[in-house]
Amino acid sequence: MEEFFGTPDEPRLPDGTGLNLKLIETAAGPVAGNADGTEQGLFRQHCAACHGITGDGAGAMATTFDPYPRDFRRGTFKYTTTRADAKPLRSDLRRTLLRGIPGTGMPSFAELPPEQLDALVEYVIYLSLRGETEQYLVQLVVDEGEYLPLGVDAKEMVLEDAVLWVAEQWAVVEQNPQEYVVPVPPRPVCGSDAERAASIARGKELYASKDAQCAQCHGPTGAGDGEDERIYDDWNKPKKGVTPEQTAKLARLYTLPLQRLRARDFRDGAFHGGSSPEDLYRRIHIGIKGTPMPAAGPQPGAKGVFTPEDIWDVVNYILSLSGEK
Amino acid sequence: MPNRSNSTSPIAIRAAHYAAWLLACATFPLIWMGGLVTTYSAGMAVPDWPRTHGDNMFLYPLGSWLTVWDVFLEHGHRLLGSLVGLVTIALAALLWFRDKRPAMWWLAGVALVGVCLQGVLGGLRVVGSKIFETEIFWTPAPVFLSVAAALLVLTVQAVPAGQSGRRQLRVWLRAAVVSVLFGALAWFGIAAVEDRLFLAKVHGCTAPMFFALAASAVAATSSRWVGDSPPTETPRARRIQCLTSLGAAAIYVQIVLGANLRHVAPDAAPWWFTLWVWLHVIVACGIVLLIVWQYLAARRHAGDQPVLQRRISLMAGLFSLQLALGITTWITNYGWPLWFTQNFVAVEYTVVAESFWQVLSTTAHVGVGSLCLATATSAALWSKRLLIPPSKVLGVEKDGAKKAQATPRKRHRK
After folding, report:
1. How does DSSP classify residue B405?
2. Cβ–Cβ of A100/B351 closer than 8 Å?
3. What is the ipTM of this complex?
4. pLDDT value for B398
5. A125, containing H or E segment
6. Which of B261, B334, B255, B259 is nearest to B287 (CA)?
7. Quick check: A270 and B349 CB within 8 A?
């Protein structure tokens, strides 16, 4: 690992990842200031207490939060504008940093200068790339019986199949946004109250429909009290055994205890991925990656349960629940 | 109580009183500024010490100081700290040479040692493990020499006059050994601790202690204290004294817990933070109980001592403010807790890092915290000065002052 990525104090990058090492270096390492007012060690200064120095989401304050701070090592991000199967854009991560995630511990860093945000975004990608490579390595050792330290061939394989492959996933999204970013058609204008009421009624019906299953998790009235109470996100699923004893046994392997995921209560209007109608449209279309919250919109090769018009109706319905328009 | 003003020059005491006020008034903003430095993580904006970006600290160009916010904070904190050091020296000199009460010599000595230590701690917190490579390993030598000299004077002052020359010499020698040992111990103790976060915590915990010391000096040099205002005789004196001292101690414990919350190592196991949070909350509840109790007790049994009552009421007020600030600090840093938004009122709220309200509430929580400690210390001291159990008054009448002071304390220890 160190050979590819260096240490948290001295990050390194293999060639061909397309990441900007200069930005990463400002975000890495211990905190320090320079005489010209620029700063070093941004990640440790602003993020590591929650997200951990290696971005494993188990920083010193992690247990205080529900949901836990994100573990970047899976390379999955919840609030994106890109398709359910794609990596986020840099601008998605940047938006998350700018506005924070309302209703969670993730703060907004709108007060930081833009260069620092860029450096932090780049560093998050670096940590995530590093994390995914690490997972691949563990699999290699456990499943294929490779021994550490790796031989030259195996190293080549790790570089090709993990580092560069994952880096490619990030790069393609950035290069062909038109292919990966989910388009948001303009919201149909509801001229009169009657039209709006009709749209909300349609949305309510769609929401309750068998195909969509929204109510299963979010409850019949959108209060977040659906039948499916025991849901977990991808970061917590591995901690869950079939029996309670198994779960207790697994708990020893993880720093943070198992944490249940709650489906959103729509009534309080605190939407984590943004509360504008367009944000909600994207959430329903794309789903929330890494959680059971499904993608309801049409995906390449699949029709999806909702058409874009349906989604707008559901958005209107959900907004009506939180008392907004 | 014997009339103390006879034994100490009144003008010098006045001067010491003003110096103590000056010290307290300079220390308070210093603590706020230190709090800001931590809130903005600006401590490392000036990564060298005792120099500022390679310049002599006192000659650092004004332009570079005032233009970058983090540098402004950290460098300003250092300058203000130096000022506090100077005032401390003045106060210590006044107390040593003009105040005849040994307790005040000790106070002066501890304040001087404290301010030196605090300065060095602050510096080490910045320079951290680079300590042996930098000049700072060598520059504080004069500081320790002066501390040693101070201790020397302190001890020698305590030598009763009229002793034989031989005995005097022995005292001098002992004093010299003690001060050299102290200097060496302190120096190597600090040099051994290279953990910056630990140093930051100690630095953050020494500051309120020092502030409380300044407040004590203010109390003990006031004309009411040294004058002969009569103490109130009450059977509850001991209890109220206990309660006020306990209150001050609990507030200090709370400050130490707070420092641990503020300086968590990012790689610490997560349950540490949870532990500190819970302890902080539990001790806060304990302090509320103590304050209510001593407030009621003082009203009932020390009704004729407005000086004491005012301090206790002030502390109750400050502590209420401190509770409100604590809750605000939590919300502006970590958001509304889930149990609250789900069961009571749903609030849409996004934490904004380094936002105005976050910085203000967090730093105010630190500042008002040390103000609480200073007030509690003052209340504890005044309760010792102004309340007296009935037996003690009897003692004064029968056997004179000396025995009266010794007996109750012995009984108390048992």
Report:
1. H
2. yes
3. 0.76
4. 43
5. helix A114-144
6. B255
7. yes
Task: Scan for tokens 């005489």, then name that residue.
Answer: A35
Question: Among partner residues A102, A108, A256, which is closest to B353 by beta-carbon distance?
Answer: A108
For the segment B367-386, the average pLDDT, to the nearest whole number, is: 94
Per-run averaged pLDDT (10 residues), chain A, 325 residues = 72 76 78 62 86 87 88 92 90 92 88 89 91 84 72 79 86 87 86 87 90 86 79 85 80 81 83 89 92 86 84 91 69
pTM of the entire predicted model: 0.78
Spatial neighbors of B325 by CB under 8 A, at least 6 apart, are B361, B364, B365, B368
* Residue numbers in B near A101 (CB within 8 A): 350
Contact assessment for residue B157 and residue B105, using Cβ atoms and an 8 Å cutoff: yes
Domains, chain A, ordered by start: 2-180 (no CATH), 193-228+263-321 (1.10.760.10)
What are the tens digits of pLDDT across the range B47-96?
776 667 777 777 777 777 777 777 888 888 989 999 999 999 999 999 88
SS (H, E, C) chain B: CCCHHHCCCHHHHHHHHHHHHHHHHHHHHHHHHHHHHHHCCCHHHCCCCCCECCECHHHCCHHHHHHCHHHHHHHHHHHHHHHHHHHHHHHHHHHHHHCCCHHHHHHHHHHHHHHHHHHHHHHHHHHHHHHHHCHHHCCCHHHHHHHHHHHHHHHHHCCCCCCCHHHHHHHHHHHHHHHHHHHHHHHHHHHHCCCHHHHHHHHHHHHHHHHHHHHHHHHHCCHHHHCCCCCEECCCHHHHHHHHHHHHHHHHHHHHHHHHHHCCCCCCCHHHHHHHHHHHHHHHHHHHHHHHHHHHHHHHHCCCCHHHHHHHHHHHHHHHHHHHHHHHHHHHHHCCCHHHHHHCCCCCCCCECCCHHHHHHHHHHHHHHHHHHHHHHHHHHHHHHHEECHHHHHHHHHHCHHHHHHHHHHHHHC
- DSSP class of residue A65 equals -
How many helices, marked H, and strands, marked E, lie in chain A?
14, 2
> Is the previous residue joined to A88 through a cis bond, with omega within 30 degrees of 0?
no
**Long-range CB contacts for residues B193-196, cutoff 8 Å, separation at least 24:** B193/B124, B194/B128, B194/B129, B194/B131, B196/B125, B196/B126, B196/B128, B196/B129
Q: Which residues of B touch A (CB under 8 A)?
A: 41-42, 44-47, 53-54, 64, 67-68, 70-71, 74, 264-274, 277, 333-335, 338, 341-342, 346-355
Contact map slice: A 102-141 vs B, CB within 8 A: 102-112
User: Is the omega angle on the peptide bond into residue A183 within 30 degrees of 0, that is, cis?
Assistant: no
Judge whether A235 and A290 are in contact, CB under 8 Å. Answer: yes
Among B71, B270, B338, beta carbon nearest to A62: B270
Amino acid at B175: A
pLDDT per residue as tens digits for the range B119-177: 887 887 777 655 555 555 555 555 666 666 666 666 666 655 556 677 767 767 776 77
CB atoms within 10 A of CB B102: 11
Size of interface A-B (CB pairs under 8 A): 122
pLDDT higher than threshold 80 for residue B406: no
Q: Please tell me the predicted confidence (pLDDT) of residue B400.
A: 43
- Tokens representing residue B46 in the block: 């000036």
